[in-house]
Amino acid sequence: MTDVHDEVSTVTVTVNGREIRADPGELLIDACERTGTYIPRFCHHSRMNPVGMCRMCLVEVDAGRGPALQPSCMVPVTDGMSVDTESEATKKAQEGVLEFLLINHPLDCPVCDKGGECPLQDQTMAYGPGETRFVEEKRHFEKPIPISDLVYLDRERCILCDRCTRFADEVAGDPLIHFMDRGNNTQVNTFPDEPFASYFSGNTVQICPVGALTATPYRFKARPWDLEETVSTAWTDSMGSRIAVQSSRNRVLRLLGIDADPVNWGWLSDKERFSF
Ligand code: SF4
Ligand code: FES
Fold first, then answer.
1. What is the sign of the dihedral through the CA atoms of 225, 226, 231 and 233?
2. Is residue 4 over pLDDT 80?
3. Which site among 40, 43, 52, 184 is 20 to 30 Å from 71 CA-CA?
4. Which atom of ligand 2 is nearest to 73's Cα?
5. Residue ranges per domain, the chain?
């Protein structure tokens, strides 16, 4: 068996003083994660094209011209590259990005359906500044609004990461959810009279890194720490997709897709996801 990371076909990168080997072209964020160094992220998803929307993955990269902050989800590794994911500059940048993201995001995790399983909440605790200097009014939208029979949208919680919109366009092929308006008024939404009528809409709820998209059948039914989970195989699709069956008090409350490389990559059809 050949080693996919053998010395001939790979490049050497130094991450926090430790040498790792990576395939040429592999994204820095993925190479670091594969070798044990997690870089925080919101927009990056290994099954979709990188877009560099959120800047949470900024790290100090030296590719031969001196260290500079670069978004690691947009930078392919090159031989001799040196990366510092824990430097003062990196920490300050990550704190700054979180402080900016929280300018408009409500600070009401205890009443948010995503609380306890929210990447924004977790990464704010791990990498955030601890307090905000923003005292002005946050922006407001009518909320939550149903964008289909299965999905509710809370635009105040959205951090404009482009995950749902990319999924709908790139993966499902149903570009029915979009960014609208510009600058501080940018919002994610569906067009009037065009509901989010995709057979795969539930995947956007699963990959949304905040509580902006929630599934009607699950909203406020449970907290994640109350759920028991059993890994299983999808029963209504013909692919044998991997799923996590989550239940509480002997009632199934939610099905999530699991990323199984030969099968469903974490995606599920709505027919499967909401089949119980
Ligand atoms: S709704 Fe969620 S997934 Fe979509 S852009 Fe906003 S934060 Fe990202
Ligand atoms: S994860 Fe890299 S810019 Fe969002």
1. negative
2. no
3. 184
4. 2
5. 11-86, 104-220, 225-276
Architecture label for domain 11-86:
Roll (3.10)
225-276 folds as: N-terminal domain of TfIIb (2.20.25)
From the alpha carbon of 58, which atom of ligand 2 is closest? 2
- pLDDT, tens digit (0-9, with 9 covering 90-100), for 190-244: 998 898 999 999 999 999 999 999 999 999 999 999 999 999 999 998 899 999 9
- Please give the Cα distance from 141 to 55 (Å, whole number): 24
> What's the confidence (pLDDT) of residue 237?
85
Residue 144: asked if its preceding bond is cis (omega within 30°), the reply is yes
53 lines ligand 2 (CB under 6 A): yes
Structure tokens at 44: 């990056």
CB-ligand 1 contact for 54 (6 Å cutoff): no
Alpha carbon of 168 to ligand 2 centroid (Å): 19
**What Å distances lie between residue 13 and 5, 72, 115, 252, CA to CA?**
13, 13, 36, 45
Q: Relative to the alpha carbon of 40, which ligand is closest?
A: 2
Compute, in angstroms, the gap from residue 237 CA to the centroid of ligand 2. Answer: 32
Out of 3.90.550.10, 3.30.70.20, 3.40.50.300, 3.40.50.1110, the CATH code matching 104-220 is 3.30.70.20
